Structures are given as structure tokens and as C-alpha cells.
Amino acid sequence: MSQLPVPGRDTVYVWFGRESGGRPAPAGRLLRRAGATLLGRAQAQIVVGHGPHGRPVVAASGVEARRELPVSVSRAGGVVVVAARPGGPVGVDVEWLRPLPAVALARRWYAPAEAAWLAGRPADDRAADFLRLWTAKEAVGKALGVGLRDGGLRRPMPESGGPGGDGPLRPVPGGAGLRVGHPPVGGGLVLAVAVLAADAPPVEVVVVEGEIGAAQRTGHVAAVRSASTERTSLPVVVRGS
User: Fold this and answer.
1) Cα radius of gyration rounded to whole Å, the chain
2) 31 FRET partner, CA 20 to 30 A, in 78, 107, 153, 214?
3) How far apart are CA 139 and CA 146, in angstroms?
4) DSSP-assigned states of every residue in 71-84
5) pLDDT tens-digit map of 74-97
6) Contact criterion met (CB below 8 Å) for 205 and 193
């Protein structure tokens, strides 16, 4: 991975892993890999821990001053995603695309304007649009370090750009410096990446294919596929409206 990090750019790097042989997906291994790659240290010098509210912390130990790398982790149905951004706070969330009662869930969890927008979408697009909004809210909450507490599910998000995903990170309404987008990764996954960036220059997202593949800007993650949809950050389906 000598091509990482990309010099002179504010970039989010995303690693994918998956369960193997019934064992949990290797979040710790991916976090150490991210730390070694972006902090320029051996993996043995990378320390992985947890900060307030369980937020993952990646740091380089050694004779020099301690260096930390902003990271975020998400899991869904056997897949684990790690995002790292040397330039500042980052959040990531992933879900498997699947049928769900999108309008009923939106009326329960989202602000009325978003629920109304979703109800007006074509029926075949509603599940994907619901999940894009959900993952965006999760990713933004992680970038802020607060999760979905204090009304995070009602925090307005940019409307979805369509079935191909939202490549560029776009401003979050009313969120100073917050940007969020959905890099198209394929394989039945909905991926959201959010950053807190006060400066105007765009933030690039580089998706790393699998655990050891080359960095890609195409957003294609052919190595990550699964039929399992059981593990999710979504709440239990609400009956009624």
C-alpha cells in the first residue's frame, strides 16, 4: 500500500473486512492496518483502544510524541467497515440493502419533512432511500462524536442522489462544516461517510478493496458479498405508524 496516504489531499480511507469461519469480522486488525498505513509505523507500534462513549481510538506509540488517527467503525451482517481520516473527525456507517417498511419507519423515526419526502419517492426506491438517510445520520453522529443521541435521527440530511449513490460529500443542512455522502460500493451495501471539515476544499473518499487490496477511487468492492442481513444498527421494526 505504498500509494497511501495520498499527499496534499484531505482524504477518507475506507477498509472492508468480513467474518470468516463464523468468527467476528476483524475490526481490530483493520484498525491497526489503517494506523500503520496512515501514521507510517509498524503495526506492532499501533495501539487500538476506546474513548468516550465507546469511540475507537487508534494511536502510534514509540519514542516520538503520541499521534492519534481519527477513525470510525461500522458493522452489518458479517461485514465490518473502518474509515480513517488523517485530516480530522470522520464517521462511517454501512447497511445491507433489503426490503423494509420504509415509510412506516420514517414516520416513526425521522422528521416530518423527511418522512413526507420518502413517501413521495417511487415505491421501488424507498428502502434504499430510507437506508441512505439512516446511514447518513449514523455517520454524521459518529463524526460529531455523539452518535444518535439528542435527536440524531431527526437531524436533517441531504436528499439522496439516486440509485448510483452520492459520490461527493455534500453539506449537511444546518451543520457547520459537516459533510456526508454515499460512495457507491456495490455488492448490496449502502455506505455513508461523514466528515467535520471547516475548510472549503473537497474531501476525497478512497475505498480499499477488501483487507489487503489496492486503493481504489472507483468505489467498487467486489470482494465483499454476503447473504446475511441479520446484524444491523436499525431499531426493531415498529408496528403501525
Assistant:
1) 17
2) 153
3) 10
4) EEEEEETTEEEEEE
5) 999 889 999 999 999 999 999 999
6) yes
Residue by residue, what is the 3-state secondary structure of 157-208? CCCCCCCCCEEEEEECCCCCCEEEEECCCCCCEEEEEEEECCCCCCCEEEEE
Q: Which residues of 190-216 are buried (b: 16+ CB within 10 A; e: fewer)?
A: bbbbbbbbeeeeebebbbbbebeeebe
Strand intervals (E) in the chain:
11-18, 46-50, 56-60, 67-69, 71-76, 79-84, 90-96, 166-171, 178-182, 189-196, 204-208, 215-216
Task: Please state, in angstroms and rounded to a whole number, the distance separating the CA atoms of residues 132 and 140.
Answer: 12
pTM of the entire structure? Answer: 0.82
Cell of 108: 416513526
Query: How far, CA to CA in Å, does 229 sit from each of 48, 59, 64, 89, 170?
Result: 28, 32, 44, 28, 28
Helix (H, G, I), strand (E, B) or coil at 50: strand
Which of 12-21, 60-69, 82-91, 101-110 is the least confident region? 60-69
Which residues have C-beta within 8 Å of that of residue 132, sequence separation ≥ 6? 160, 165, 166, 182, 190, 192
CA distance 224 to 232: 16
Degrees to nearest 5, angle at CA 114 with 136 and 154: 60
